[in-house]
What does this fold into?
Amino acid sequence: MLALVSAVTLAVLIPTLAAPTPGVNIPITKSAGPVQPNSYIIKLKNGVSKNSHLQSILSNFVAGSSLRYKYDVFNGYAVMLKGRDVDFLRQSKDITYIAEDRIASIDDFSDHGLEVSERPNQGFDVSPRSVATGTDAGAGVDIYSLDSGIYLDHEQFEGRARWGATFGNYSDIDDNGHGTHTAATAVGKTYGQAPEANVIAIKVLNRKGRGQTSDIIGGINWAYNAFKQGSRPAIATMSLSGIADDATDEAVNNAIAGGLHFTVSASNSDMDMSNLSPAHVPAANTVGAVDDNNEKADFSNYGPLVDVQAPGVNILSAWIGSPDASKRLNGTSQSTPYVAGILAVAISKYGNKSPTDLSADLKSHASPIVTGEPEGTTNLLATKW
Ligand SMILES: *[C@@H]1O[C@H](CO)[C@@H](O)[C@H](O)[C@H]1NC(C)=O
Ligand SMILES: *[C@@H]1O[C@H](CO)[C@@H](O)[C@H](O)[C@H]1NC(C)=O
It folds into this structure.
């Protein structure tokens, strides 16, 4: 009863309390792609205290809106906004933008309807049985996998995979397979480039390989906080993309500025990736895909913001269903964790560096041998050093 009375009172008071400041009627940033209805990401102006802002805003919501996430890596939050609360929030002078909550998806390029048993495994292994150990194998480094989760009990992980967190209304399992595949490409005992690194599952994608930007930023935020609170060098890897999105870009940029390395996929539409997030974040290591002849994979995106190329065709790695399940997949989803593994080994061998310096090392040790890239796109093949 009390709650009802106060809600009614507030509804009456709002027009006086929140009289529109001239010029404040923030437009809602629309996404060109699919969005989650009623879900928004709010960016606050620099210097605005998130907690004070939220305190005043939340108590004035009258239509059942609710806070979903408060972010640290980004001065903002995610909220479900209903009815006239949308117009109320648009009057806040604290806000830089209100963006629709865009849907992003995985960057492999395969027929998910076919199971391993139905498709003969053919082709060569880009990741032959690893003989590396210790610092040559990424020991001491953490890889945060923002994906569909990881099948922790897969034998490829030897207990080096653990569950970090889940963002979105999902169970703590990899019900897609994509996250298990990408994780083992980074750290799997025989499929991985860094077979002694650890991998931490941050589930931000559903069983269809899709996820909301608000959840993905929740995952970046979690990885960044875990990295900051821990003492191990770390890489976040994201084999996913969506239409360019300022909030995602800013979260990734801030995390990189704080020392967390990122590998991100260029995606698979055989087009310039400059309009995709997080692919187009310049400070992230953006990875394209090549085949076993070091020729551009026909699906791979390209463009000036691709940093390196890596193997992404017929990549054999772990799958869900049983502890020894495997599958071959194509995509920049596959080439991206390969580079995460390479970075883990470099950090382990030579010590951690700033993301800028490690990216420079990655490029200076890469081989300029990739063919078939359009002019203006790197021909550097990521190579261990
Ligand atoms: C979460 O998912 C479950 C199962 O799909 C569903 O029953 C429930 O309503 C969902 N909860 C929310 C808050 O969306
Ligand atoms: C990957 O690409 C190769 C070469 O185009 C093709 O033969 C193979 O069937 C593809 N694999 C999948 C899983 O789509």
